[in-house]
Amino acid sequence: SRIDCKTDRSKAPMIVIRNIKMVTLKGMVLYTQGDTEGFFRLPQGRPVLDISKMAVSELIAPVTTGIQKVFRTGEKIAYTNILISGEVDKQLVALHIFPMPARTEQEPLAAVVIRKISEVNQSATPTNTSIYNVDEQTQQRIKDLELELQFSRENLQATIEELETSNEELQATNEELLASNEELQSTNEELQSTNEELYTVNNEYQDKITELIEANNDIDNLLTNSRIGQLLLDQDLMIRHFSPEVANIFRILNSDLGRPITHLVHLLQDTDPAAMVHQVLHEEQPLEKVVRTKDGASYLMRCVPYVIGPNAYSGVMMTFVDVSEIRDVRHELSQVQEQAYEALSIQEDKYQRLFQTMDQGVVYQDASGKITSANPSALRILGLTMSQLTGRTSMDDRWRAVDENNEILPGDRHPSMLALKTGKAISDFTMGVFNPQFEEVRWILVSATPIFSEGKLDPIEVYTTFTDITEIRRATENKK
User: What pLDDT digit, counting tens, does each position of 5-32 carry?
Assistant: First the structure.
C-alpha cells in the first residue's frame, strides 16, 4: 500500500518485522530503512532484535499494540499525536503499521513507518485507514494488558490448583507407594521365610528320597537274595512285584507286570492259586498250604492280605518257601527216630526187666525226699505196698530206723538224704528199718547216688539200692 507524505517516502524511517508465535504477538526486526535514531535503538548488552525492546519508551505501547492488531486482523493501522521527547526538543509523530505480502508457508511480515506530524498530508490520508488517538490506544492497551494479566492470573491459579491437586495425588500416590513398598518388604520377608522353609522341606524330601532309594534297594535285595518266591498282587489281582524264585512256580516274565494272575501258567499240582487268592481277598484271612510242583519240589505256600493300615488291605502277598530239603530231612529224621524209639524200647524193656527182677531193692526219691517209685524187691524187703511207699519221706517215724549199733537213726541221716544234701554218693551204709509184715527190724546194706540235671549244681533226685542182710547179721551174731 502506498502512504502519501509531503516528503519522499524513502526518507521516512521504516522497519520490517516478522511475527513470533508466542502467547503475545511480538515482532522481530528483519530490516530497517532510513534514520531510526531517536525512535529505535539497540539496548545495551546482548543484541536483541525484539522491536518492543528497541523502541523508545513513547513508542513501546503504540508499536506493540499496533503490531498485535495488524497480525491479528491483517489490516493496516495508523497512530497520530505521539509525543516523543528528544535530547534537544519534543516532536509529534505519526505511526503507520501495515501488513506486507508474504509467500505461502512463510511467517507474516509487517512494516512500521514513522512520520513527523508536519510531514503528513492529512488530506491525502486514505479513507479506509483509521486514525487513532494515542491516549485512547494507551488505555486500550492497558485494558488489554489487564485482561491478559487477569487471564494469566486465572491460568496461573488454575495451574496452581492443578499442581496442588497433582501434588496431593502425587502425595497420595507416594503414600500408596510407601505402603506398597512396606507390603512388598513384608512380602519379601515372607517369601524369604517361605524360601527357607522350602529349602528345609527340600532337604527333608532329599533325605526321604535317599531313604526311599535305600528302602527300595533293600527290598530288591531281599526279593532277589532271600531265595523265597514272593508274588505281590494289587486289589485287582494285578501283578505288582515278584522275586526271581517265583519263576520256578509260574511262567512269568518282567513284561507280565500289570497282568492278572489268572493269565499266568503255574506248575502246581492239585492247587488253584487264583482260587486261594480270591478266598484270602474275600475273607481277609491268611491261608497256608504245602504244595508240590510237577517236577516233585515241595513248597510252603502262604497267601496273606497286603496290609496298608489298621483293618485296611489292598491286595494279596503270596510266598513260596522251598521245603523239599526239609521234607527229605524230616523223612530221614522220622526213620532215625523210629529206629531210635525201637532201640530205646528194647533197652527200656531190658532195664525194666532188670528193675523188676533184680534181688536188690531200688527206691527213687525227688529233691524233697519223697519216694516216687520202687521195684518189687524194695517192696518185699520193706514189707510195704507201692501205695504205702509212694510219697513217704525219710523223716517218717514209721521207719523206726536204727544204725548198726541199734541206736535211733534220724531221717536227715539216712543215706538218701545225705546224698541229696552233699551231692555225693553214699556206699555200704548199714541200717535197720521196721518191716510191718514181719513185725521186726530188717537189716539192709544201703548205697545212695544223687542225680543231677545238666547245668544244675543241686541234685534233682536220688536213687537208693539196698540188700537185705538180716540173715547174714543173725548168723554172724550166733557165731559170736
Answer: 333 444 567 777 666 543 334 578 888 8
Q: Which amino acid is at 412?
A: D
Q: Are 133 and 81 in contact (CB under 8 A)?
A: yes
Residues 6+ away with beta carbon under 8 Å from 292: 268, 269, 270, 298, 299
Look-up of cell digits 487477569: 150
The distance of Cα 64 from the centroid of its chain, to the nearest Å, equals: 84
- Burial of 51 (C-beta count, 10 Å sphere; 0-12/13-18/19+): buried
Per-residue pLDDT, 380 = 92
**CB distance 355 to 375 below 8 Å:** yes
Helix axes 134-225, 57-73, angle to 10 degrees: 70
Evaluate if residue 127 carries a pLDDT over 70.
no
Position with higher pLDDT, 36 vs 4: 36
- Do residues 82 and 65 touch, judged by C-beta distance below 8 A? no
Which regions of 74-130 does DSSP assign to beta strands (E)? 77-85, 90-100, 109-116
Nearest to 51, CA basis, from 22, 85, 18, 78: 18
Residues 6+ away with beta carbon under 8 Å from 202: none
0.70 exceeded by pTM: no
Residue 443 confidence (pLDDT): 93
Q: What residues pair up with 50 in beta bridges, in sequence order? A: 28
Q: What is the pLDDT of residue 217?
A: 82
- Could you read off the pLDDT of 59-111 as tens digits, one per residue? 888 888 888 888 888 889 888 888 887 777 788 888 899 998 877 677 888 99
Cell 528497541 belongs to residue: 54
| Of 317, 289, 334, nearest in space to 229 by CA | 317
> Residues near 126 by Cβ (< 8 Å), separated by ≥ 6?
1
CA distance 288 to 280: 10
pLDDT of residue 19: 64
